[in-house]
Amino acid sequence: MSAGLRYAGRRIGQGLIVLWAAYTISFLVLYLLPGDAAALFAGGADQEAVDPELVARLRAELGLDRPLWEQYVTALGRALTGDFGTSTQTGRPAVALLAEALPSTLVLTGFAFVLSVIGGVGLAIAASLTRRSWLRNSLLSLPPIGVSVPVFWIGLLLLQAFSFQLRLFPAMGDGGFDSLVLPAVTIAIPSGAFVAQLLSRSLRSTLAQPYIEVVRAKGASEARVQLAHALRNATIPTLAMVGVLVGGLLSGAVVTETVFSRLGIGRLVVTAVNNRDVPVVQIVVVFAAVVFVVANLLVDLVSPLIDRRITLARTAFAAA
Amino acid sequence: MLLPPSRSRVLATVASAGAALLLVSCSSTTAGSRPSASDEPVTGGSLTFAISVDSQCIDPQQVSNNDAIAIARQTVASLTTQDPDTGEILPWLAESFDVNDDATRFTFTLRDGATYADGAPIDAASVRTNFEAITALGAKAPLGSSYLADLASIDVVDERTVTIAFSRPSAQFLQATSTFSLGLLSPATASVGQAQRCGGEFAGSGPFSVESYTPNEGATLVRRDGYDWGPSTNAHTGEAYLDSIEFVVVPEAGNRTGSLQSGQIDATTGISATDAVLFEGDGFWSESRANPGVVYNLYANQSTPKLADPDVRLAIQKGIDREEITATLLGPADKPAVSPLASSTPYFTDLGDVLEYDPDAAAALLDEAGWAVGSDGIREKDGERLSFSVTYWQSPKEVLELVQQQLREIGVDLQLTHASIADSQAASADGTYDFVYGNLTRSDPDVLRTVFTADNPTGNTRRTTRTAVDDLLDEQSATTDAATRQRIVDEAARALVTEGITIPIYELSTTITASARVRGLAFEASSRLDFADAWIAE
């Protein structure tokens, strides 16, 4: 068990390094980009004439006139205590802005996650079960299309059809379930396609394995072979990619929230980057990194419950 | 067209002189047909208006972004109003006003009985509180504090009289009092934190009050009951007709177009020129107005060796076919520039003769300056190519691409550098540019001084030391006599183009596109939206 603890400890350590790297890289990138929050604030979007004196005063107020390393160390120190500073654009705590934007994004990505799992798994099983090769081939040709079309294009297409023409769903806002459907489907299409692609590939290789022949020889029905035996083993490689799936859902939210004028951390971060609002960008980046790390950690902890061999292999590796 | 009623109580020399100005009317109905104004306005209903960007702030004294201004403008009344047709400054909260001869002292006599949304009276002391608060906001109130630069004193003479004095002549100040930036907020607002004010925590003086505001989502404004101090530039002076206005932030252009077509929004200014044709049928109308101020132009950095030569700058100015740009790429309301000032700006004069497209003259100027056509068609001198970069963020980028093609024909290579707003500002601030591209909206010719003066830190776009044109720019800001000011502004505008200090391209216009049920939504003098007379017809 101590090997297991050490394994968990190391995974958590790795996670912390990922968080620190995300924080530091986003800090550096934002400072390397030309233009700063003070100049943007003083000038506004419509003015090209910015008073250098006013900008200098603002820079001092925002602490932007201090050396870069000093700004970084101060900011990092405060971030460790959970204080991500104040949004330069709105003057409000970055944490509060994240907390306000988060529920909307969680609802959107949560619903999109459910849709993409149902859709992706359903498609993979349907393709695997069907005996007509033309139907299987056409089903299997859908995921590569789904993962390759741009999210904003899917969004505009759905808007055109279901909002502007059929008028079934609103084109904008966060007004309840109606306004959730189109954006969630938009994100679910590429994510579901990704799930379908992984699972059908995995199913195919599992079905080619010798033990499946044994199961078949015992007289199990094809549905039972696939659902009870192959699916369980085929799920594991798919599950390992949940981290990537979560990343896809979050990046899909950035685009989708803009197309559908929804609130959320996607809109928050786009606005913040445009305004060089470093504290807000950083808290969103760190949040996304936390989600990613936690998702991968959970996958690593859950996988052994599904397949005992993973635990054994990793324990052996850790002990070596 | 709105006709201002009696203005006999106006004392101001500046204001009455403004009537002498001849302005080109630039309103034009471009599509559909604007519903007849003779219909009887109906009280009630909510109007949904889409804006494209949210600047995270709707405090009228802090905003400088067009979309935020559309919200903020409705929440405040101003000391004065400006006639969109004549440029004349007329009473609003001030029933009369007086300006001394050298434009350093401005006295306003307030009307009786007007109140802020929290019930406080709009009196002289509250005007002082407002202007002091704007000065205290400093850079966070970029427009207002620039209008109040050189403020010397604010004297509350009596309850209804206030005198504002400047340490230097400031003829622009009277027009500034008509803008949303100097719109009046309740004295209680002055002690609200800057960020809270941005978030909508302020009590205004206008026909609408903020009910709610969520950044990136939108704002709800509701009718101010008891408002009866609308200006003569509105069709009526009483309470607004609409119960509420819903501003929704819709960043995606395709979404705005579809939402307007399908009736999910009632109006917007954010329809792209290519989509405008979709609204040329029944059920919609659109109306455009040129934004007053400095037109879209190339600001030449004269501290670079190549652009220090006026012949090179003038050649570029003559090598641009403005007619081709507006005719092929822009909407019917976007006009070729015929002055550094847009035609909707008071004191505008048409200098189209100076700004004619003349590629032969351009080529001759460059030949004379020693720039010979090289093997690839681009001119060279002493091994150096006649190549420039222009930093820009504005759309449509096709305008600059066409300029690039046109200049190539006279042997000038223009490289386009698309940048974010932040990056463009950084380039402007540190002077690392050949050309920057931009405009500035302001309904007073003093805008020329704002962007072209050599010694004002807010806008040395030329990057030169003072020249004769700076004297003209200073002089017009100290002149209240309209005829004299007109002469000086004309002289300054002409010098700016004949010396190639600016390379004007086209006049930006704002276009309202709306459903036919939207009535009375109009432009004020600075081409900002005014919802005071707007109503919904069912």
What class do helices, strands and sheet pairing of chain A give? mainly alpha
Determine the number of helices of chain B (DSSP H or I, runs of at least 4 residues).
Answer: 15
Mean pLDDT of chain A: 83
Quantity of strands of chain A, as a count:
0
List low-confidence stretches of chain A: 45-49, 311-320
Q: Average pLDDT across residues of chain B?
A: 88
The value of Rg of chain B in angstroms is 23 Å
The percent range for helix content of chain A is over 70%
The quaternary state of the protein chains shown equals heterodimer
Largest sheet of chain B: 8 strands, mixed
Spatially, the strands of the biggest sheet of chain B line up as 1-13-22-12-2-11-10-9
Helix content bin of chain B: 10-25%
Radius of gyration based on Cα positions of chain A: 24 Å
Please characterize this protein's 3D structure.
Chain A: InterPro entries: BPD_transp_1_N, MetI-like, MetI-like_sf. Chain A: Its main location: membrane. Chain A: Keywords: Cell membrane, Membrane, Transmembrane, Transmembrane helix, Transport. With 320 residues, chain A is an all-alpha fold. In chain A, helix 5 runs antiparallel to helix 6 and helix 5 packs across helix 11. The longest helix of chain A is centred in the middle third of the chain and has 36 residues. The radius of gyration of chain A is 24 Å and the shape is flat. The C terminus of chain A is likely disordered. By secondary structure, chain B is an alpha+beta fold. In chain B, the strands form 7 sheets. Chain B has an 8-stranded mixed β-sheet, sandwiched between helices. In chain B, strand 16 and strand 17 form a beta hairpin. Chain B is globular. The N terminus of chain B is likely disordered.
In short:
With 320 residues, chain A is an all-alpha fold.
